[in-house]
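request received
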Amino acid sequence: MFEAKVKAEVLKELVDVLSTLVDETKINANKEGISVRAVDPAHVAMVDLSLERAAFESYNADDQELGLDLDKVKEVLRLAKTGDVIDLKYDEDKNKLILHVGNITRRMALVDTAGMSDTKVPNLNLPAKLTIRVEELRQGIRASENVSDHIALTVSPEGFAMQGEGDTDSVDLKLGKDLLDELESKEQVRSMFPLDYFANMIKAITTAPSVTMYLGNDYPVKIEFQIGGGKGKVKYLLAPRIESD
Amino acid sequence: MFEAKVKAEVLKELVDVLSTLVDETKINANKEGISVRAVDPAHVAMVDLSLERAAFESYNADDQELGLDLDKVKEVLRLAKTGDVIDLKYDEDKNKLILHVGNITRRMALVDTAGMSDTKVPNLNLPAKLTIRVEELRQGIRASENVSDHIALTVSPEGFAMQGEGDTDSVDLKLGKDLLDELESKEQVRSMFPLDYFANMIKAITTAPSVTMYLGNDYPVKIEFQIGGGKGKVKYLLAPRIESD
Amino acid sequence: MFEAKVKAEVLKELVDVLSTLVDETKINANKEGISVRAVDPAHVAMVDLSLERAAFESYNADDQELGLDLDKVKEVLRLAKTGDVIDLKYDEDKNKLILHVGNITRRMALVDTAGMSDTKVPNLNLPAKLTIRVEELRQGIRASENVSDHIALTVSPEGFAMQGEGDTDSVDLKLGKDLLDELESKEQVRSMFPLDYFANMIKAITTAPSVTMYLGNDYPVKIEFQIGGGKGKVKYLLAPRIESD
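response:
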């Protein structure tokens, strides 16, 4: 059983985040809310997302798996006006999700979840932690995209840096600790990442003003931020690009 | 003789409607105003448009045929700012239409109307009638375009429905009679239509808040709406797509 | 030595003007400010631009040549928000220009200026002069682009005209002397110009409300306008297209 009403903007946050990695995904619903784990086809990045029942206008579900084609959900979201609530109901007999928005009903075939394995979130020990404004990251990404296809993220007790190094030009975003919302770092750590993955994820953040990042030396980065007006959470892991020189 | 001044937005309404069906068209002018009948090349849809002399800022014409290239008129409309009045004058000697907007003069060659036959509007007996908000139709079109290339329109004493049926997904727009401005229907009627024609027509309606539709069983739909601030009228006919099953 | 701070919008004016003609250019800096002369590859148009030190927020330079890739400067300008000041500093050791905007640093390789010859501005005796609003020229360009790829500019004691002549259609922009800010013309002069060059230049004017034009008979047009809030000046020369008939 699955019946829920949710603000279009909350559903959009969820879809925007997931569709940076996958086209189809398995939603796990239970009495407490929904959760999703998705890994991109190249196994470079993972997202672990949860949305409490309190993030919904109304919510009523037993343990239930729903295989969603994210492009179809985007089609329905494009019908919603600001403030619209989308009504979702699982039709068990026909294995369809029935979505209502305004006077429109969309009956959506679900995707077979049999082949979607459950993803385990690795346990990482990342020594540095910082909280940073999304807008600053976006500026750093925009600037770096002009010179390189990868970036180095550095955290030290002094602050945070994002660096893109091209053949002739380079770009630096530097934020001293006074420009960060939070900084925990005993020594300098540095890892390199593919810029497109990092950029797609940060660009998918539509409401959270800041994110918390965890970093190590040539280790994955973990990015955490809130969705659903604080009633949901995203953890995003991105594998490092190991420098060979 | 043909001399007229018309608000750019009124001329735009006329051009937007006609250009859903044809690139070139014959305008018939007389003392009372102008009228146009156009049929698309595939003979699937027809428009019958009239604009009274009162829709113009000034108007002075004898019986006159003008063959217009609608793309050229759109070029002139793009020069107009909000509130601009376009000055039109037929130059008989050179067979050109002279258009003024701001400090610009465009001398436009007219299209030969000799080969443009006069279109007869068929007399149809359509038992159901309803008046519906354009915005609702637009939502239904947007939603249907995601799943199908044709739609079924149904009218019954209970209300109106637009349905798109895809291979796996379906879309319904349902409006009970309380959500319609007007409904006259003794029994249920239903016809199917090509979605692209229907969509292009409804999207071309820029000022009328609602349209009146006449429907039958596997019969054309007639759509009527006002242009020119109520001083003009469009009747649009679209042939049904007969279901073969 | 070259160190300067400049409002992003002022740097953008300079880049917009120059990039209508060239991709790379040589900036000449000295104690008084900067100047640039650029000729397009086909030698049809020339720009002579200067920006006083007073146009900068701060300025400190010896005689210095800087070879700029304009696309790279545009990349940095896209990072700037309204009101942002861009910090420029020449790193002599590495032959790079270091640009700061917000918390971003871009280290930009400079272009070799050895092959860039110094351009001489020809001395022209152009008998007619007028000052005209840029918005009127833009309208005339927009209208002319629909019918032709060249335009005739005419000045007479009565006023100014821009004419585009196509195979079937023609466009005129006519401004009597009362619609011009200034007019000096003893007799009628007329020259034809390639519309794309003229259009690109006029479209690159982002802040000046009007330009001063100098015209002759089958002679180049000289266009002058201000940049940098009146602390800079652009002179633009465009060769005529000689009519052969």
